UniProtKB/TrEMBL annotation:
Region (Disordered): 1-34
Origin species: Tolypocladium ophioglossoides (strain CBS 100239)
GO molecular function, one term: hydrolase activity
Database matches in Pfam families: Sec63
SMART domains: Sec63
Gene3D superfamilies xref list: Sec63 N-terminal domain-like domain
Alphabetically ordered keywords of this record: ATP-binding, Helicase, Hydrolase, Nucleotide-binding
Biased segments, Low complexity type: 1-33
Residue ranges occupied by any SEC63 domain in the UniProt entry: 50-363
Organism lineage: Eukaryota, Fungi, Dikarya, Ascomycota, Pezizomycotina
Top-level taxon in the UniProt lineage: Eukaryota
Name under which the protein is recorded: ATP-dependent DNA helicase MER3
InterPro entries: Meiotic_Crossover_Helicase, Sec63-dom
Hydrolase in keyword set: yes
GO terms under biological process: meiotic cell cycle
């Protein structure tokens, strides 16, 4: 990777800045032109040109709502129209459930379907009963394809934000992707529902006992788990064996030195390497606390490291499998930041909620 950091697409060119528009977007008539690096991203994810242009209109530093909203507006979602039998169901979700981002317009567009379905799923509550058995079955069949498409669109968005060096955008897109893959919003009170065998009633007992996340549950003895949940042995042992695979990440970040480009003499003139100024050299140690390589949902998860500077600009981005962290992974990177600039460092698994480590440092 380049000394000054890497974007999600490992591209060094910066995308054109979008023109001002409504919050979270730029006007479509002034959408940024798609240069070679962006075109490469489009080809990688095989998305329709209108979809890609829509994604490129998102302004820097978006919030969750904007990212999810724009992702669901992908042209490909038009193959999932809201059927007449579904209208009451989606209106009920929008008007009478606790989803965080209701829609103010009439519920009729294909993107409404994906936008509302994701939110009701992430609430981890029952689907409203205002739907026939046949319509429910059809919707369940469509649901899997909707999530596959959404995964592709969000990963594409991470690369777009990375290419334009929007660190806040990368972090938020990863947050939404992680939440959707886990089936729970990052930071919600439902983190424990990721554990196989833990439902709403079981989670309620644990929360009332002060156990609100998986890391806290991991610290309990097997007999405490059995007592809290009124279960007999070997229930506690089985749960702890399962939880032993939950990734408990480790992050160490230190700024160790400053590097200034060396002056070299060429043809009797003094010339400096093509750098904007001094680099801060950082040492990053990535790893996990687990005794063996973590495996969740029967696979070793991916992990991401994002370093943001002030204003949300992307300083560094790394992505890899936790398998690569077995003996600890050391990264020595050059950070193009000014003295005293605040850096936000976030390290998390890609598809699991509750693994994120956040640190703040100053150059």
């Amino acid at each position: 990777m380049a000394a000054r950091g890497a974007t999600a697409s490992q591209a060094s060119a910066q995308a054109s800045t979008a023109s001002p528009g409504p919050p979270g977007t730029s006007t479509s008539s002034n959408a940024p032109s798609i240069g070679p690096d962006l075109h490469e991203i489009q080809l990688r994810y095989k998305l329709a040109p209108p979809t890609f242009k829509t994604l490129c209109t998102i302004s820097n530093s978006p919030d969750r709502r904007v990212v999810l909203h724009k992702a669901c507006q992908a042209t490909e979602f038009r193959s999932f129209p809201i059927k007449q039998a579904d209208r009451g169901f989606f209106r009920e979700i929008n008007n009478h459930t606790a989803i965080p981002y209701p829609i103010s317009e009439n519920i009729s567009e294909p993107w409404h379907k994906a936008f509302l379905l994701v939110q009701i799923d992430l609430q981890r509550t029952w689907w409203p009963n205002k739907i026939s058995a046949k319509a429910r079955k059809d919707l369940l069949q469509e649901r899997g394809r909707i999530y596959i498409l959404l995964d592709c669109v969000l990963r594409c968005l991470v690369d777009i934000f990375g290419q334009r060096r929007d660190g806040r955008g990368v972090s938020v897109a990863l947050d939404v992707l992680r939440s959707i893959k886990a089936g729970i919003w990052e930071g919600s009170e439902n983190e424990l529902l990721q554990v196989e065998g833990v439902g709403l009633a079981t989670m309620g007992k644990l929360v009332r006992a002060g156990v609100k996340n998986i890391k806290q549950l991991l610290k309990l003895e097997f007999y405490h788990i059995e007592r809290l949940l009124s279960r007999n042995p070997p229930f506690g042992h089985k749960m702890l064996r399962q939880l032993a695979n939950f990734p408990v990440l480790r992050l160490q970040f230190d700024i160790v030195d400053q590097y200034s480009p060396v002056q070299t003499s060429i043809a009797g003139t003094s010339k400096t390497a093509n750098l904007d100024g001094p680099l801060w050299i950082a040492r990053v140690m990535l790893g996990y606390e687990n005794e063996e390589v973590p495996s969740w949902n029967k696979k070793a998860p991916g992990a991401t490291l994002v370093i943001e500077g002030e204003g949300g600009r992307l300083i560094w981005f790394w992505r890899g499998s936790v398998k690569r962290l077995a003996d600890g992974k050391e990264l020595v990177v050059g950070l193009d930041v000014r003295k005293g600039e605040e850096l936000k460092v976030a390290f998390a698994c890609e598809e699991i909620v509750g693994t994120i480590i956040r640190n703040t440092h100053r150059a």
